[in-house]
Amino acid sequence: MKRDLISIEDLSEKHLRDYLELGKRVEGTSPEVCRKVLAGRILGVLFYEPSTRTRLSFEAAMLRMGGQVIGFSEALNTSVAKGESLADTIHTVEQYCDAIVIRHPREGAARLAAEVSRVPVINAGDGANQHPTQTLLDLYTLQNLFGRVDGLRIALVGDLKYSRTVHSLFHALARFKDVRFRFVSPETLKMPEYVIEASEGATTEVIETTSLEEAISDSDVVYMTRIQRERFPDPVEYEKVKDAYRLDRAALQNAPAHLKVLHPLPRVNEIATEVDSTPHAAYFPQAGYGMTMRQGILAHLLGGKL
Amino acid sequence: MSPEQILLIPKIENGFVLDHIPAGSGVKILNLIRGHQELNDAVLSVGLNYTSRRLGRKDLIKIQSRELPQRFLQHLSLVVPGVTIKRVEKFAIAQKIVLEPPELVDNLLSCPNPGCITNHERCVTTCFHLVRREPMKFRCNHCERWFAMTELENRLKL
After folding, report:
1. pLDDT tens for residues A178-224?
2. Starting at the edge strand that comes first in sequence, how are the strands of the sheet with B92-98 ordered?
């Protein structure tokens, strides 16, 4: 049976820990051996929305595992612009490749692609819904920085309403033991009830606040997010909150020495560049872990031996 | 039911009695019946706001029809779960079932989320899972959003 990676909701705590283990195995494998794992295999990369890190890290991951990549980075120059349905695009592309990575502005697009595809499908973001490989790389980053995920105190900061990254990460972390959360956001960008509701049953402690200062002094991880202009139906609302949180050196003065700052990137104003050189900054290594994690994901879904 | 109430709704020889409908929901069921062409010719008797020991007040509908279409029953179990359906043969009750809310709702609803792919792709089948019974909530299998039944009532695919 083919394997897909569509939603964090499909993964149990054991699945999550298995993926973290896969990342470790990639790191423990030499580049020469890695290049043989998916040799001769082709990855179809279908990006209907712009992306830098996700697309490039998937492509780099496939190349490092010895495979090759085909695809598009915008739908404008494809048959989609002529009105082709997603199902028809998938039926076509699956003829050419061994797995498909898809990013699409509509929620549920990756699930639909997986339903019609005979090759594995990986969700690289479907509208405001899911971005499971980002979540896995975030978990993998935490595992590498702290040696564990269990028991961490994590502040999620910024756009908690529209950020799919934050929603998925919260649901995934809630499955680990004793993870405690602080939700830091303006009132208008609070974590939606339906997201909290969906994690019901997990043993989690959640404190909601508007104070970033308080979160910095009492957390192991501050996970910053960009306030995403493109998700706001009303531009006036965006202007009101766009600079709500800005992390700079001064704000980190009272931070515990071990505090790490993560960000899914791209950033705009929410983290000052002066933070980059502090020992707290971990967002660029996080992007690096993304490639390692995706190497593991590709090997796993394509049946490559690591 | 008291003898006076029995007089208000005539007995039927053959057909179905939809009983234990919470007061006010009878109208929803009438709308549902209207949406199913197979039932358009059926003779209906409707009683609203009767006294009920179990519910306080209840509605009741009798349908003189040979069959109730499967899809109607599935829609009914969504819109007004808990209704008792009695099949009547020659004035006697031949069978009685209570409609439970479905665990899986296969292509009976369209998704209320305008950003859901199922509202943009041709010929796509929707699927919802029951994720909570009290209050009843369903999750779209595609966009993964949770919806209360009140948000889904007007999304029935008839």
Report:
1. 999 999 999 989 998 888 887 765 657 899 999 999 999 999 999 99
2. B43-52, B56-64, B15-22, B84-89, B92-98
